[in-house]
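Lab channel / #folding
Pinned by the channel admin:
"Please post every new chain as: sequence first, then the structure tokens as a reply. Keep commentary short and put observations after the output so the thread stays searchable."

First post following the new format, from NK:
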Amino acid sequence: MKTLNLNSIKFPALIFLYTLLFLFYPGDSWLFHTFAYNRELFDKPLEYIPVRPVHVAYPKYSSYVPFLTAEGVYIVDLDTFSPVFERNAHEHLYPASTTKILTALVAMDVFKTDDIITVKRDFQDGQVMGLFQGERITVETLLYGALVHSGNDAAYALADAYGYDKFIDLMNKKASELKMSDSHFKNPAGLDEDGQLSSPFDLALAGRELLKNKLLKKIVSTKEIILSDVDYKKFHTLSNVNKLLGEIQGIGGLKTGYTENAGENLVSFYRKDGHQLLIVIMKSQDRFNDTRTAVKWIDENVSYFTLH
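Reply from TO:
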């Protein structure tokens, strides 16, 4: 007859005992609290969470390349941020007034739209909305002036109201937050300065961020509007520099830019059959014609496959 070997059951018994202590003895272990005190969470069956299909954009014919005069191009599907065409996507180029995308984003961070700003200077350099020193005007109206009319005076008024140097610092911090590693800003309007640079890829990041804001998205799609200062002394007629608004179905605006050094820049928001894309054109000889060509190329050559 075999005798029971206590040593052979000693180790399993200890394991069982310690398991009971772990589950039922009060203590400070987060594991204990999770399992012992919240058992009802683990009794529930797992809920089914439906996964939204992902539509991935791709060019159907790799040999079909759009003829564009722009030195820098980035065409990207917004849902997945997957590019369908790019040229010198990270080349450092002068952003010109596309800079005002960052100016608007920072203004939305530091002001309320109904804040009233007193214009601190007469600014007549380049495109202006016609502000005068001492004019009292809301932040929202200045955003329309900067993004629709591309008013340099509006951009400077926003920066001056916060503190010019501090505002420029925030523009660069915002660029860093958005992972715009090719970009640096020295003024809020986009005037050419050494070191004021961006890239097609970075402007796509900035454009994507702007479109997340409902008010800014509405502003950049505005073709024309008349707005006054808060004292109704001056009415400003603001016309969008982007002449493709209303010409090409699906173009929802975004931001133009031009200086002699920058050439012609244009960031466009385009919707097609439920899909959303950004078209970034930099240092172009004809930004509007390049964008028309890009839209035609998208319509003819960009397709989608679905990931479930």
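NK: The radius of gyration is 28 Å.
TO: also worth noting, Residues 34-38 have pLDDT under 50 and may be disordered.
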